[in-house]
Predict the structure.
Amino acid sequence: MAALGWLTPRRRSATARSVLAGEAAAEAARKTQDTSVVAGGGEPEFPVRGDDQAAAFFDLDNTVMQGAALFHYGRGLYKRKFFETRDLAKFAWQQAWFRLAGFEDPDHMQDVRESALSIVKGHRVAELQSIGEEIYDEYMAERIWPGTRALAQAHLDAGQKVWLVTAAPVEIAQVIARRLGLTGALGTVAESVAGVYTGKLVGEPLHGPAKAEAVRALAAAEGLDLSRCAAYSDSHNDIPMLSLVGHPYAINPDSKLRKHAREQDWRLRDYRTGRKAAKVGIPAAAGVGAVAGGTAAAIALHRRRR
């Protein structure tokens, strides 16, 4: 794996495992990016049309999609009997917490990841990739926020690349990105041997500082100017990523991110109610996604050949 992190300075908050996770996600995303995305449409004030040094980075959970991709994916795996009914009550509580609190509880998410690693260990990468396509249609497609989708399309129409950046497994993140016509996705990466998951992560989940490291590494590899890039998220956990770019946006923000965004004069949008989104230079369709229904959790991990 190419060492990309040295190309730009890192924040002190990033651990060695964060850096490794970020660089692995960036490498995986570049290998699978869809070069067929082309520019079209008009020329809004922002994003600037034809600026090939600019790109957009979107968090997934509660930013692009209502609810957590990890839980929706887990629901699909439960349907396919990857784990037993007794696990469902625990996963349902974790999903309910996420929906009510509006943010990720570290203890809950760690528990989810440990359970998920045991679930997918020994399964083939190709199997989980194929299942991910089915699960997107079953549980995720109707939960895409129309407003955030319009923001992403504005960047595409300007000829810019658009990436998902998420702690969800990179396989399902790539499915969502492809279905939405985005450039690609950075997600949690882990290893496999001979196409079979080992149950080990590469670094750590792509969360918090690791997301910032992934964006930094990808920007260096793609020749992007982060001061001309945009980033979008709902969570204060993504402040490191949002702080990297010249155009940060708080989307459906939790209370901590809303407070920070106001202090920093960042732009805000909220699609969780029927009220019309404020105009801030990018055309967006206000709307409410479908009610999140995911009740289980599992993670599919990215192939790392050795």
Remarks:
- The CA atoms of residues 256 and 268 lie 13 Å apart.
- Residues 1-12, 34-44, 274-306 have pLDDT under 50 and may be disordered.
- The longest strand covers residues 161-169.
